[in-house]
Amino acid sequence: MNAKAIRTDSTHPDFIRLVGLLDADLYERYGALLADYAQFNQIENLRYVVVLYLDESPAACGAFKVYDDTTIELKRIYVDKPYRGRGLSKILMESLERWGAEMGCDTAILETGPGQPEAISLYHGCGYRDIPNYPPYVGYDESLCMKKRIR
Question: How many domains does the chain have?
């Protein structure tokens, strides 16, 4: 397996395509409920994006935004279906966390939902622990928020 992570931003065409696949997957899982979360999942102006390639094919993506002076918020984590089960999600998570730590942040937070059990398992396996919902997810019963120290 020849995996390569590149750092880019939200204008990268492979990121845009993978996020389209992610949105389609989320719609299958959550249906109309997804519309309530659209405001939180915009990709315009994301400055910190990782696209992971497997043998030159775009296989996974993720991003983060700076949440506060010491914290990054992971966003838009996705592994394309043909590439799942190969450990790419852990490579992706490590790449995002490393980049955030290099920027001086010591904590990563994220939000997911109960309809994504494989994502929950991944995040727990990477050392994330459940926390109370942080803004803007306070009051959203379908949100599960997590946190991890990254340095």
Answer: 1
Cβ contacts of 74 within 8 Å, gap of 6 or more = 62, 63, 64, 93, 96, 108, 109, 110
Helix (H, G, I), strand (E, B) or coil at 70: coil
φ, ψ of residue 17 to 5 degrees: the values are -65, -45
What is the largest distance, in Å, between two alpha-carbon atoms of the chain?
A: 42
Report the alpha-carbon distance of residue 45 to residue 96 in Å, rounded. 17
Is 68:103 a contact under the CB 8 Å cutoff? no
pLDDT one digit per residue (tens) for the chain, 151 residues: 789 999 999 999 999 999 999 999 999 999 877 777 877 877 888 999 999 999 999 999 999 999 999 999 999 999 999 999 999 999 999 999 999 999 999 999 999 999 999 999 999 999 999 999 999 999 999 999 999 999 9
CATH number of the domain where residue 122 is located? 3.40.630.30
pTM of the model: 0.94
Candidates 66, 114, 112, 65; CA nearest to 89 is: 112
Long-range contacts of 33-42 (CB under 8 A, 24+ apart): 33/142, 36/140, 37/140, 40/111, 40/136, 40/137, 41/75, 41/76
Structural domain span for residue 48: 3-149
